[in-house]
Design goal:
The chain is α+β, with helices and mostly antiparallel strands and 362 residues long. The protein has four domains: 3-100, Methyltransferase, Cobalt-precorrin-4 Transmethylase, Domain 2, CATH 3.30.950.10; 109-198, Helix Hairpins (Orthogonal Bundle), CATH 1.10.287.1080; 247-311, Helix Hairpins (Orthogonal Bundle), CATH 1.10.287; 314-359. It has helices at 3-13, 51-62, 109-120, 126-130, 137-153, 156-179, 185-198, 201-204, 211-229, 247-260, 268-284, 288-308, 313-337, 347-359, and strands at residues 22-25, 43-46, 70-75, 78-83, 96-100. The protein has a five-stranded mixed beta sheet with strand order 1-2-5-3-4, covered by helices on one side. The model has no long low-confidence stretch (mean pLDDT 89).
Length: 362
C-alpha cells in the first residue's frame, strides 16, 4: 500500500490521522460480503477507481452501516460528505478515497469480548466472577429457548435482543475457558471457521455437488472422514445427535441423517400409509405398555411426514401450542365477562367461545 496516499487523503480532509485507523485497498474488498474489520474503528478505503468497485464496496458497507452513515469522499484535492446510501457514483478516477468514521461504541465483536472480560476481571462484577461452565449451563439452555421463542413470535426486536443474550453466554463461557487455560474465544472462532470451510468444498473449493441432497450427503461423508483422521472411536450415524434435544427435534434429526444416506421411503405415499398403520395399531393396543409404544411410533411417523413436507416438527407443534393457549385464554376471558368460573360453563358454551376465538384468527 502506498502510504503517501494516506497522508494525501488526510491533508485533503484537513484532519490529523486518528490514533486508530483501518487501512484498506479497494480491490481487496471487491469480494467481501461484510466489512472485514471492526466497525467501531475508523476506516480509510483507498483506490475506489470505478463505479463497479464503488457499488461492490457500498453493498458491503450497507450490511453493517445504516444508509445515512456519513462518509468523507476525497478526490482531486477536494472532499465532500456522502451518505453510505449515496456512494455508488463515488469512484471516477485513480485516486478516490473513502474515510468511513466509526459506527459507534460497542458495535464490534472485539469490544463486546472486552466488556465480558472486564466482567470477569478483579474489578468486575462479583456475580460474573463466580460463574463456572456448570453454573452457566442452565442460563445457556434458557437463553437458547428464549431465542427460539423470539423466532416463533416473528418479533425482530425481540429476536435481536435474545440473540444478544445467547451470544453473551457463548462469549462468557469462552472467557472462563481462556482464564483456565482450556481454550479462548479466538480458538472457538477459528475452529468453526475452519470447519465451515472444510465442510463446504462446493463453496470454497472445486467440488461440484447436485442440490441440497448432494450437499447433505457429502457433509456426512466429510464428518465420517474427520472422525477417522482424528483417531476418534467410530460412532454410529446417529450418535452425534444430542440426547437432550426435545423429542420431536431429535426424531426429525434421526430421520434426516438416515435419509441422507438413502434410508427413506421412495415416495410420500409410504409415509402416509405408515401413519394410517400406526393409527390402527393405537386403536388395537390392549394395555398401557402397548399404547405408549404405539403412540410413540405414531408420533415418529408424523414427524416423518413433517420432514417430507419440509416442515420443522418442533416449531409446528410449538406454534399450535401457542395458538391453543391464546384461544383457551379467550374462553377463560369469556367466562369472566359473564361473571362465571370456567368450570361453570357447559362444554357447548366453551365450544361456542372457542369458535369465536378461531373466528378472530387467533
Amino acid at each position: 500500500m502506498d502510504f503517501s496516499l494516506v497522508a494525501q487523503a488526510f491533508d485533503t480532509l484537513r484532519i490529523a490521522p486518528p490514533s486508530r485507523l483501518i487501512l484498506l485497498e479497494a480491490q481487496t474488498l471487491a469480494s467481501a460480503h461484510v466489512p472485514p474489520y471492526p466497525p467501531d474503528a475508523p476506516a480509510l478505503v483507498i483506490g475506489v477507481n470505478s463505479r463497479e468497485l464503488a457499488l461492490q464496496i457500498q453493498a458491503m458497507l450497507l450490511t453493517t452501516y445504516p444508509k445515512e452513515h456519513l462518509v468523507s469522499v476525497t478526490e482531486s484535492g477536494k472532499w465532500e460528505e456522502k451518505m453510505v446510501g449515496e456512494l455508488e457514483n463515488s469512484g471516477a478516477s485513480d485516486f478516490v478515497c473513502w474515510f468511513v468514521p466509526p459506527l459507534g461504541e460497542g458495535t464490534s465483536f472485539e469490544s463486546f469480548a472486552e466488556i465480558v472480560a472486564h466482567l470477569r476481571a478483579p474489578d468486575g462484577c462479583p456475580w460474573d466472577r463466580e460463574q463456572t461452565h456448570e453454573t452457566l449451563r442452565k442460563h445457556l439452555l434458557e437463553e437458547a429457548y428464549e431465542a427460539i421463542s423470539a423466532i416463533d413470535s416473528g418479533d425482530f426486536d425481540e429476536m435481536r435482543e435474545e440473540f444478544g443474550d445467547l451470544l453473551l453466554q457463548i462469549v462468557l463461557q469462552s472467557q472462563i475457558a481462556g482464564e483456565e487455560g482450556q481454550f479462548n474465544t479466538n480458538q472457538v472462532i477459528h475452529g468453526i471457521h475452519s470447519k465451515i470451510v472444510r465442510r463446504h468444498p462446493h463453496v470454497f473449493g472445486d467440488l461440484k455437488l447436485e442440490g441440497v441432497d448432494g450437499v447433505l450427503a457429502n457433509w456426512e461423508r466429510l464428518k465420517e472422514a474427520e472422525r477417522k483422521d482424528n483417531g476418534q472411536k467410530e460412532k454410529g450415524l446417529l450418535d452425534g445427535i444430542p440426547l437432550a434435544l426435545p423429542a420431536l427435534s431429535q426424531a426429525q434429526e434421526y430421520q434426516d441423517r438416515a435419509a441422507r444416506l438413502g434410508f427413506d421411503w421412495p415416495e410420500i405415499e409410504g409415509v402416509l400409509e405408515k401413519i394410517a398403520e400406526e393409527i390402527e395399531e393405537v386403536r388395537q393396543a390392549t394395555n398401557e405398555e402397548e399404547l405408549i409404544s404405539e403412540l410413540g411410533d405414531l408420533f415418529f411417523a408424523l414427524v416423518n411426514l413433517a420432514r417430507w413436507k419440509k416442515v420443522d416438527a418442533e416449531s409446528a407443534l410449538r406454534e399450535t401450542n401457542a395458538k391453543f393457549k391464546k384461544r383457551f385464554g379467550y374462553v377463560e376471558q369469556g367466562a369472566k365477562e359473564q361473571g362465571r368460573n370456567l368450570s361453570e360453563l357447559s362444554l357447548d358454551e366453551m365450544e361456542s367461545l372457542w369458535q369465536e376465538a378461531k373466528g378472530r384468527r387467533g
